[in-house]
């Protein structure tokens, strides 16, 4: 796969799956727009990407829950490159808890980042994606379809994101824009550390998940990045409205 002269926007690019995706696309010669909240991390990932193929990314420090920041992402991308070819909606947050032990502040934070921000950023980029006959890849989760009780708002947000993928694929297909989703199982990233899990708690969670999935391993970030790149490439030119699960078989287990 080769993304030379393709402008690829990646949200949540300062860590986790987003950082792995940025590095992967840099090796495929993409012109990258890397969006993240953590400036130091974003600079570090941008420098790593630039060294890979001597293509300097455009880093944008932004909070996707702020409409003005979302609007600025679009403006800076178009001002710099004049187009967009691939939008990767990866940024997301998680809150732990079910209906009985969560609050509306947690709910609003998750929905604002995982759904509202995706909706608005995609809406603003849509005219440019139609012009380039580009594509969208949403990073969802198997928890959009797998029922659990310990992350209700997050699970709901990913179910909504999956439906968003299908609806927008149907709407934009006639305009030549493909919309797909990659749905990972457990990937050990900073996402869970951000909700307060200690290293010991995280290790216990990993062991519990790994022992229950058929392949007895966890998903690596670069594996998810490879699937995202496939969906964004011409190799997937007949795919839209599709979810690709990458979960070590977790959906097969109870």
Automatic annotation (TrEMBL):
Gene3D superfamilies: NAD(P)-binding Rossmann-like Domain. GO terms for molecular function: oxidoreductase activity. Keywords: Oxidoreductase. Coiled coil: none annotated. The keyword Oxidoreductase applies. It comes from the Eukaryota. The keyword ATP-binding does not apply. This is (African queen) hypothetical protein. It comes from Danaus chrysippus.
């Amino acid at each position: 796969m080769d993304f030379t002269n393709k402008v690829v926007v990646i949200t949540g690019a300062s860590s986790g799956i987003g950082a792995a995706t940025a590095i992967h696309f840099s090796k495929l010669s993409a012109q990258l727009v890397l969006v993240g909240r953590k400036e130091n991390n974003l600079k570090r990932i941008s420098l790593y990407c630039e060294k890979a193929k001597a293509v300097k990314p455009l880093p944008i420090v932004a909070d996707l829950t702020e409409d003005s920041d979302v609007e600025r992402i679009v403006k800076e991308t178009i001002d710099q490159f004049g187009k967009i070819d691939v939008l990767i909606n990866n940024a997301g947050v998680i809150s732990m808890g079910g209906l009985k032990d969560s609050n509306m502040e947690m709910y609003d934070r998750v929905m604002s980042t995982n759904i509202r921000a995706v909706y608005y950023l995609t809406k603003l980029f849509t005219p440019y994606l139609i012009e380039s006959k580009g594509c969208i890849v949403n990073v969802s989760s198997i928890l959009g379809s797998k029922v659990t009780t310990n992350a209700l708002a997050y699970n709901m947000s990913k179910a909504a994101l999956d439906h968003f993928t299908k609806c927008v694929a149907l709407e934009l297909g006639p305009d030549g824009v493909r919309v797909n989703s990659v749905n990972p199982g457990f990937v050990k990233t900073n996402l869970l550390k951000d909700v307060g899990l200690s290293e010991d708690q995280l290790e216990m969670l990993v062991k519990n998940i790994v022992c229950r999935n058929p392949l007895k391993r966890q998903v690596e970030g670069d594996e998810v990045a490879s699937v995202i790149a496939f969906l964004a490439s011409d190799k997937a030119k007949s795919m839209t409205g599709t979810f690709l699960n990458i979960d070590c078989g977790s959906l097969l287990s109870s």
